[in-house]
Amino acid sequence: MQNILSRSMPEGSIPEWIEMPGKEIFELPEKVLQFGTGVLLRALPDYYIDKANKSGIFNGRIVVVKTTDLGSTESFQRQDSLYTHKLMGIENGMHVEKTIINASISRVLSASKDWEAVLACAENPAMELLISNTTEIGLVLDAEDKIINSPPKSFPGKLLAFLYRRYHFFQGNPHKGMVIIPTELIPENGKKLREIILTLAQLNQMEDEFLNWLIAHNHFCDSLVDRIVPGKPDGQHMAGEEQLLGYRDELLVVSEVYGLWAIAADLAIVKDTLSFSQVDKGVIIAPDIRKFRELKLRLLNATHSLVCGIAVLNGIETVKDAMENEHMRKLIQDIMNQEIIPSIIGDDISLEEANEFADQVLDRFRNPYIDHKWINITLQYSSKLKTRVLPVLQEYMIRFNNVPDLIACGFAAHILFMRSGSTGNGYTGKWEMVDYPINDDNAAIFAKHWKDNKNEIVKAILGNLALWGTDLNKLPGFTDKVSNWVNQANFKLTANNLFQKS
After folding, report:
1. Could you give the CA distance from residue 110 to residue 179 in angstroms, rounded to a whole number?
2. What pLDDT sits at residue 10?
3. Contact indicator for 466, 487 with CB cutoff of 8 Å
4. 3 state SS of 354
5. What are the Cα distances from residue 333, in Å, to 152, 316, 337, 360, 362?
6. 315-341 b/e with 16+ CB inside 10 Å = b?
7. What are 326-332's contacts with CB under 8 Å, separation 24+?
8. For residue 151, is the peptide bond before it cis, meaning its omega torsion is within 30 degrees of 0?
9. Are residues 282 and 261 in contact, defined by beta-carbon separation less than 8 angstroms?
10. Of the chain's two ends, which shows fewer C-beta atoms within 10 Å, N or C?
11. What is the DSSP letter of 29?
12. pLDDT value at residue 93
């Protein structure tokens, strides 16, 4: 029976190729309160903090608050909150693989069972940073939430209760405010959380002095996180990993090498608090992070959305498989280089920045260690095309007065992919005798158009205001270009042409 990872493991039982924390790490003060135990937090913010601690820079550990009752904190307790983090991928065209033991977390508390211990963290003078990832549904206002509850129901309620305890314990000391960085994947997440907190404080009839301290001495920062984290391997793969490691780890996490944590901040006090940014170029602190969101949304996400239907219709299962197919690889590169990049460069994003980000995206797509399935990328396919791709299409046509051919191809593949029938449990598409699931809230709209408007399917779908918010038939030449692609009935990759009839 293998030992489980913990501080009490016999000396020398961990292989030398695994990066270990020094004993001094465990003596560092608790400086961070983190709401959420998920793998993204542990593989990105916690990774950077651990890296900084091992370099003698940030010098602070994390108290993690488990915000839901699902699961337990027992694995963290058994392992002294240590966990293995395996990073694998391609960086600058080179294969990279490294394994570390992350010691950034000091302890994990349950909001429902240990609420007084969570509030006690507010009385710690060293506490200065608060991080969250409670998913997008966590950043919502619950107008009925009361901070006197133990605990408050919502994440904003819990945060407000923590800040209120801190305000009173330190008697409104202006130097005891917090830097607060939500990582939930919504635009302007810091501004959103601040707005909710202030509204909730007013609904709880909190005193003006506290509101003034809250506004003046606590800093809510927008942030953007980006790293693919499949999580812990399953079954046989996990057994193989533990055999290689020589110990058991119930908290093991696997991620790609690439990582980005962009944080909007320009005040010196905030930058000083985020000193861990010095140890990794993946942490970017800038007054405005909108360009990083734009690069990710267009070059990574929009490319995914334009290609996923084409890949599924060609029987290509994963992103990695697509990058190993020379025709699909060229298609992906051409979409980025010929149509997306020319549409987004300008005053805010330089050609050099766009090209550098595109190269990083291609490295991530090539990652041989991550099986990112195209069919999973088609989740909410139509709404993703609207938010990710439609602005690029419109901007391209404004700038060049021409239809982007490959974006039109992506829309055509989408229309064909969404040809479906209801199964009673949802919608299923069929292409060359292969069935595939369609997980899209707009599937019924497409099914009706395919039934009622088959002969003018492109015009009907592109003109549906519920799908796009505008009539895409009004874009000069776009309908004809998409129709030409749709009429190439089989969408087959060939050596001489992207697609041809078979």
Report:
1. 22
2. 87
3. no
4. helix
5. 49, 17, 6, 12, 8
6. ebebbbbbbeeebbeebbbebbeebbb
7. 327/493, 327/494, 327/495, 327/498, 328/493, 331/307, 331/406, 331/498, 332/303, 332/307, 332/362, 332/365
8. yes
9. yes
10. N
11. P
12. 81
Compute the distance between CA of residue 352 and CA of residue 337 in angstroms, rounded to an integer.
12
Which regions of the chain are under pLDDT 70?
1, 136, 231, 422-423, 489-502
477: its two tokens: 């030449």
Q: What does 370-393 look like in DSSP terms, one character per residue? A: ---BHHHHTTTHHHHIIIIIHHHH
State the Cα angle at 359 between 354 and 363, rounded to 5°.
145
Distance of alpha carbon 196 from alpha carbon 211, whole angstroms: 13
Residues forming a β-bridge with 225? 261
DSSP of 402-418, one letter per residue?
Answer: S--HHHHHHHHHHHHHT
CA 200/CA 206 separation, integer angstroms? 9
d(CA 401, CA 378) in angstroms, rounded, equals 30
Contact 178, 218 (CB under 8 A): yes
306: Cβ contacts below 8 Å, ≥ 6 apart: 335, 385, 389, 406, 407, 409, 410
Q: Which amino acid is at 44?
A: L
What's this model's pTM, rounded to 2 decimal places? 0.85
Query: CA–CA separation, 447 vs 299, rounded Å?
Result: 30
Strand-pair category, 61-66 with 105-110: parallel
**Integer angstrom CA distances of residue 185 from 40, 133, 373:** 11, 8, 21
d(CA 333, CA 303): 9
For residue 327 the two structure tokens come to: 């025709």
